[in-house]
Design brief:
This protein has 225 residues and is α+β, with helices and mostly antiparallel strands. It has helices at residues 2-7, 42-45, 49-71, 129-143, 155-169, 177-193, 197-220; strands at 11-14, 20-24, 27-32, 38-39, 84-90, 93-100, 103-112, 117-124. Strand 5 and strand 6 (93-100) form a beta hairpin.
Length: 225
C-alpha cells in the first residue's frame, strides 16, 4: 500500500503501531490502519476531501486484492513459474496475481491444450497496484465474455465525456433540474472510475491549445495576392 501511495505523490511512513502516516504537501493528511480504515483530524481534511477520497480508494483496493491473493489457490500450468494465484476463472479465461518485490502484478490468460497450458498473457503491474488491478479486472471481464467490450468506455473516452459534461454544465444553456442532476452524477461517477482524470484532462487541454496555436501560426503565415 505504501508503494501505491508514494506513486500517487503522497508521503507515507510507518509509525510504531504499523499505521501509515500520510502527508500531502508536507502537511499531515490522515493515518491508514492495517484494516484499511482512515483516521484523521477534521482540521487536516478541510479543503482536501478529494485527496482523502483518493487515499481511501487506494487503501480499500489494496486491501481487497491482498486479501484475495492471500486466500486464492495457486495457479498451475505447464511452463508457469510458481507464485501465481488464481483470482478468477470463467469461460476459459483466468485472472491471476503474483506478488513481487515491487508490489502485486496481475495477468489474464486463456487456457489451451485441454487446460494444461496458458497463452496470450496480458500483464499489469507491478508499478501501480490499484490501477493495474482495476485494469486487469476490466480485461478479464472482456476476454471471458462476461461483458462485451463495446459496453465499456476507455479512460480516454471517459475523459472527453467528462470535459463535455462540464462544458454543458458551465454554459448558459438552459438545463432542467433533472438533466443537471444526471450530468453531475455522471461526472462524479467518472471521477471515481478514472484515478488519473486530472492528468488526462490537462493533457487533453494542452493538445487542444497546441492545435489552436498551430492554426493561428498557419493563418499568420498565409499570403494573399
Amino acid at each position: 500500500m505504501r508503494a501505491q501511495l508514494l506513486s500517487a505523490e503522497y508521503a507515507a511512513e510507518f509509525r510504531d503501531d504499523r499505521t501509515l502516516q500520510i502527508k500531502l504537501d508536507g502537511k499531515p493528511l490522515c493515518q491508514v490502519c492495517d484494516t484499511g480504515n482512515l483516521r484523521y483530524f477534521e482540521e487536516d481534511a478541510v479543503g482536501r476531501e478529494k485527496a482523502l477520497d483518493q487515499v481511501r480508494d487506494i487503501a480499500s483496493t489494496t486491501r481487497e486484492y491482498m486479501s484475495l491473493l492471500d486466500r486464492a489457490p495457486p495457479l498451475t500450468a505447464d511452463g508457469l513459474e510458481d507464485g501465481y494465484n488464481l483470482l478468477a476463472e470463467f469461460n476459459g479465461t483466468v485472472l491471476a496475481g503474483y506478488l513481487t518485490g515491487y508490489g502485486a502484478q496481475f495477468v489474464t490468460w486463456e487456457w489451451v491444450h485441454d487446460r494444461t497450458s496458458l497463452w496470450q498473457g496480458h500483464f499489469y503491474g507491478p508499478g501501480d497496484g490499484a490501477k493495474n488491478y482495476d485494469a486487469a479486472k476490466r480485461d478479464f471481464i472482456v476476454r471471458s465474455g462476461l461483458l462485451q467490450k463495446s459496453a465499456l468506455f476507455q479512460p480516454e473516452q471517459l475523459t472527453e465525456i467528462y470535459r463535455s459534461i462540464h462544458e454543458t454544465l458551465d454554459s448558459a444553456y438552459p438545463l432542467t433540474d433533472e438533466r443537471r442532476k444526471l450530468l453531475e452524477d455522471a461526472a462524479c461517477q467518472i471521477e471515481e472510475g478514472v484515478p488519473d482524470l486530472e492528468e488526462r484532462i490537462d493533457h487533453s487541454n494542452l493538445e487542444e491549445l497546441d492545435l489552436a496555436s498551430a492554426e493561428i501560426h498557419s493563418r499568420d503565415g498565409m499570403q494573399f495576392n
